[in-house]
Amino acid sequence: MLSINAVHHVAIICADYSVSKRFYTEVLGFAIIAEIYRSERKSYKLDLKVNEHFQLELFSFPESPERVSRPEACGLRHIAFLSTDIYADVASLQAFGIFVEPIRKDELTGKLFTFFADPDQLPLELYQK
Q1: Which of 6, 9, 107, 123 could form an SS bridge with 55, CB 3.0 to 4.6 Å?
Q2: Domains of the chain from N-terminus onward
Q3: How far is CA 5 from the centre of its chain?
Q4: Roughly how many angstroms between the first and final C-alpha of the chain, as a whole number?
């Protein structure tokens, strides 16, 4: 059996680096750990701190194909972020002009959750802690 006990990071490829960088840092509020430009790949790599244990990596690559998202495609379905105040977080997203689906209750856990999307329409979820 493997010794895996946590997720370290999720990597996201974006279409417009500056738009996605702004979304993940200014809208979602993730702190920048490191940002580099790899000239040989014509690509940015941005490491973002979600919390003490989890990171997002944001990449830009020229001419990346679009991600098929809807209807639901095979592969990564969404990224879920724990929220301590889902109503306040929804209001904050809406203040940035981001469409957020109505808040729903998880039938199994009784917890509240909702979905919104990043600039490339990657589905993101807020899940009430």
Answers
A1: 9
A2: 1-63 (3.10.180.10), 75-129 (3.10.180.10)
A3: 21
A4: 30
The pTM score is 0.88
Task: Dig out the tokens for 74 from the structure.
Answer: 């095979």
pLDDT in tens, 70-104: 666 777 789 999 999 999 999 999 999 999 999 99
Q: What is the pLDDT of residues 35-74, one digit of tens each?
A: 999 999 999 999 999 999 999 999 998 888 877 766 667 7
Please check whether residue 76 is in contact with residue 68, taking contact to mean a CB–CB distance below 8 angstroms.
Answer: no
The string of DSSP letters for the chain reads: -----S--EEEEEESSHHHHHHIIIIIS-PEEEEEEEETTTTEEEEEEESSSS-EEEEEE-TTPPPPP-TTTPSS---EEEEES-HHHHHHHHHHTT---PPPEE-TTT--EEEEEE-TT--EEEEEE-
Q: Which residues pair with 81 in a beta bridge?
A: 126
